[in-house]
Design goal:
about 625 residues; alpha/beta; 5-stranded parallel beta sheet; 20 strands; about 45% helix; about 15% strand; globular
């Protein structure tokens, strides 16, 4: 895992206890040897190996110093170590940051593993015969003798549904993820896993929109100020959308005179507009001029698909979002520029209701009062008309189909599933060949969604939707690829929208402050009116993506023929060859839109070659 920490490495072992910790360091705060890890307490009893940042560590350090505790470094690592020595497990409740860490307590002979409240930083583990092994990346565990490289067939269903694997499972049977906001203790071979964090959604009916706007603006500035603490240069992602622009604006508000470099992805003319309806670049340029930022344009050329095997190697888990390419290339450029830290707008859509699914759910509430059959019939006719007139792959046709699918589903988890899945259940069922996968299909991929739905605390159907998205889409997908693609270039990405103060504030706001009619993220937009141009604030929602459908038509043709060939499909023995061929044909003649499903199948085969056929070693196209 040298790419995660190229600046230093360290090891600590206690042979008598059968315990060892290792660490690779990306030096961000106190870059001196005083920050070397694993870090051992003054009395030698407590040892920590830690990945991430705790942003409120200065306040925590002052509190500990007032109690007479002495520090030997300026790191947040030492603050966690001493806070644990004082408070034990309760220390987790005091941390505002992104982290995954291991603490060996020599007094109790207990190991503690913990992951931050939102799952920004990763933590994998494998148990066998009373022993436990853990790492920040799955591929590291494959170097341990005896670790099985067996496909988890139940996870295939989840993957084909979401394009990523949710929850505690991974695509390799037996290797698991510690979930966001959870800790794990190992005590003499006995493992206990429990949550330490949950966010309660308790809207305050007495707060005014004006007061909420001021509170959001102030909380964002404080969150960004906290996350700009660094002893090394930092910059920002800037797509030109509201979230990344709001972060950049808060950076400028927090540090009016600092030189700030922002990075934006640039695609060949017309390519990205075909996929998502609009080109982001002019908006990013407008924001950079307005805020006085240096804008670095990172070109995403057609041959970028050659990076796919390398990306799959770094991702650890199959994740079929082409946004991995601009994310990695931006991180790479930043590293070449001498920057080690980038701030990102990831999470803004979940916290402030920014997805089209939030708008759809609001519309469904009103439409549910209409007679069911005539309304459903009218929607189905509109969908057929769009498919016939515009074609199945047109952006408007795709959005209408998804909206209709969500409306016809029962409210609650089925409706959530209809809005977030990327392939149709009947297509998945025909595609799956292996008995174990078909059996898992019967139990439905919504099991994790049900689990998170039940755990929701508070009120509000849009809050409920966002809670599930934070636990699944954000943690298991957005943060996964953001962490891996950035750390592949030895860059740390920070996400101010996950600041605890800001998340807790948003959870106390009335739902109609976040989503009102067709206006999403209302209170955030109001908060940014004094900081950003109106045309940026109130532009249409656009995702951070790539022109996948064009790539499938052009650059990926040879890859499709190779990875999804009859011989490869038969040899893997997981998918029905006739169904794969039918999916490819219908996508080619545009009678169906299977672009992401095809891309998922390509990714899966390359992932299997990398992590099943080989012990975590990249393949070549």
């Amino acid at each position: 895992m040298g790419h995660r920490g190229p600046d230093d490495e360290g090891f600590w072992h206690n042979e008598a206890c059968g315990v060892g910790l290792g660490h690779r360091r990306l030096s961000i705060i106190d870059v001196s040897q005083a920050g070397h890890q694993p870090m051992v307490s003054t009395d030698g009893h407590t040892i920590i190996a830690y990945n991430g940042e705790v942003y409120n560590f200065p306040e925590l350090r002052q509190e500990l110093e007032r109690e007479g505790r002495a520090f030997h470094s300026r790191t947040d690592t030492e603050v966690i170590l001493q806070l644990y020595e004082r408070d034990g497990l309760a220390c987790l409740q005091r941390l505002n940051g992104m982290f995954a860490f291991a603490i060996w307590d020599g007094r109790t002979k207990r190991l503690l593993l913990a992951r931050d409240h939102a799952g920004v930083k990763p933590l994998y583990y494998w148990q066998t015969n009373g022993a436990i092994y853990f790492a920040s990346e799955l591929k590291a565990l494959l170097k341990i003798p005896g670790v099985p490289r067996t496909i988890n067939h139940a996870a295939i269903v989840d993957y084909l549904t979401f394009l990523w694997v949710p929850g505690a499972e991974t695509m390799l049977a037996g290797i698991r993820k510690l979930e966001p906001g959870h800790y794990l203790t190992w005590d003499g071979g006995r493992v206990t896993i429990a949550p330490w964090f949950s966010l309660t959604y308790d809207p305050d009916p007495n707060i005014s929109l004006a007061d909420a706007t001021d509170a959001v603006r102030s909380a964002m500035t404080r969150a960004v100020h906290r996350q700009m603490v660094s002893d090394v240069p930092l910059g920002a992602f800037l797509s030109g959308g509201l979230d990344s622009s709001a972060i950049a604006a808060a950076m400028r508000a927090a540090f009016p005179d600092r030189e700030i470099t922002a990075y934006t992805a640039v695609f060949p003319p017309g390519e990205i507009a075909e996929e998502q309806g609009v080109d982001d670049l002019p908006y990013a340029e407008r924001v950079a001029r307005h805020l006085g930022l240096t804008l670095s344009r990172v070109e995403i050329r057609p041959n970028v698909i050659e990076l796919l095997p390398l990306m799959i190697y770094h991702l650890d888990e199959p994740d079929s979002d082409p946004a991995i390419f601009p994310s990695y290339l931006i991180a790479n450029r930043a590293r070449d520029d001498g920057i080690k830290v980038l701030l990102s707008g990831t999470g803004g859509d979940e916290v402030f209701f920014g997805y089209r699914s939030h708008v759809a759910l609001g519309l469904y509430q009103r439409l549910d009062y209409l007679p069911r059959w005539p309304t459903t019939g009218a929607m189905a006719a509109a969908s057929r008309g769009a498919n016939g007139f515009l074609g199945h792959t047109h952006i408007l046709s795709r959005r209408i189909r998804k909206f209709v699918r969500g409306f016809t589903a029962a409210s609650g988890v089925p409706r959530h599933m209809a809005l977030v899945d990327w392939s149709e259940p009947q297509v998945r069922e025909r595609l799956l060949l292996h008995r174990d996968a078909r059996q898992a299909m019967q139990s439905d991929a919504s099991a994790y969604i049900e689990q998170y739905s039940t755990a929701f605390r508070g009120c509000g159907h849009l809050n409920h939707h966002s809670h599930i998205l934070i636990q699944t889409f954000l943690a298991a997908h957005n943060f996964l690829y953001t962490d891996r693609t950035s750390m592949a270039a030895s860059i740390e990405v920070r996400v101010p929208f996950m600041d605890l103060e800001l998340m807790q504030l948003a959870a106390r706001l009335p739902e109609n402050f976040k989503q009102r009619g067709k206006v999403s993220k209302l209170v955030l937009k109001k908060a940014m009116e004094s900081r950003l141009p109106e045309e940026v604030i109130y532009r249409s929602k656009v995702g951070f993506g790539a022109p996948l459908r064009r790539w499938l038509r052009d650059d990926l043709n040879g890859v499709i023929r190779d990875t999804l060939s009859a011989d490869k499909i038969r040899e893997r023995g997981l998918f029905d060859l006739s169904q794969v061929e039918a999916i490819l044909r219908s996508n080619d003649n545009q009678t169906a839109d299977h672009a992401y499903l095809i891309y998922a199948l390509i990714n899966f085969e390359l992932w299997a070659q990398t992590f099943v056929d080989r012990p975590g070693e990249p393949v070549t196209l």
